[in-house]
Amino acid sequence: xxxxxxxxxxxxxxxxxxxxxxxxxxxxxxxxxxxxxxxxxxxxxxxxxxxxxxxxxxxxxxxxxxxxxxxxxxxxxxxxxxxxxxxxxxxxxxxxxxxxxxxxxxxxxxxxxxxxxxxxxxxxxxxxxxxxxxxxxxxxxxxxxxxxxxxxxxxxxxxxxxxxxxxxxxxxxxxxxxxxxxxxxxxxxxxxxxxxxxxxxxxxxxxxxxxxxxxxxxxxxxxxxxxxxxxxxxxxxxxxxxxxxxxxxxxxxxxxxxxxxxxxxxxxxxxxxxxxxxxxxxxxxxxxxxxxxxxxxxxxxxxxxxxxxxxxxxxxxxxxxxxxxxxxxxxxxxxxxxxxxxxxxxxxxxxxxxxxxxxxxxxxxxxxxxxxxxxxxxxxxxxxxxxxxxxxxxxxxxxxxxxxxxxxxxxxxx
Length: 414
Fold this sequence. Notes:
This protein is mainly α. Helices cover 83% and strands 0% of the residues. Helix 2 (40-55) runs antiparallel to helix 13, helix 6 (135-162) runs antiparallel to helix 12 and helix 9 (210-237) runs antiparallel to helix 12.
């Protein structure tokens, strides 16, 4: 499937498949424990608590991980191994304390380690590919591998939830994480840069390019809307829909992301990364407006699929832009900051329909309007420097022509 990209990419893909498969099993175990087994009001409290736990410490952990990656570039490969190994141990511990409050901090640690894996994987990827033009295609192929892994592991999760055996999903997750760690350990050493010791002032001087900052803002908007829409639709059906209906929504979101993994490399042949982010926002806006008019389980599934497609399109475009423009020694910090920003955006969006009860039609319409607003702001910010540059170029050309005319006139008088 991915042998054509070399042994390094194959091992990276295997490690990623194990990571995503394990995370899927843990998520299903938590869904059966925290959501479907309790009334709606208690489910809202559990989900809100879980979201706050995942968000609060990221402000500290994000910069810490960025500093580690910047000082020790070799930590990328070791980070993949360490992340998978610790998640295997956490899955076993969660199996033991599955019914206690200790589940929340352990779930938080597992989420942090999953982000750690994602940052290391994204930073290693350019080193196992041959050229810059392969970046978006490589990101998309890893995404397809992750979706296939989630689908392949789904039967174990379904058995766990339907039989009320959360321990079964967690034990399976631990085994998959071990496989991920073994694959990462066999990853060839990749030249990802040399360690650079910088002062705080020097780190500030290594600025992220403006194009990446703007794309990060717009991509975070897509992530914010994804969190908002997922929880809005989920609680709209809580009590009326069972686990299989909820699984259909998650499956639709994964299906949309999977389709984006095929379509985005085609986009990459005809456009730059920024229009991909704009396309993600436009798709999300249109889907939210349509779902508001004909809301029901089919419309919710279509909305989830569109949201997954929008997130995949925007994220693949952003990752390719960052990987191709940020220096290799600064890439780990840039990915860490971006992933932290995206996590804040997702949690903030998800909290809005959890804490107050948001009417479904109003929420969907508001999401569509917000997606259009973010799109307008992003496009305007990207185009303003281009228009200014073109205007300056036109002024310079007119000035040059005027100077040329005055020179010819003076020559003629002489």
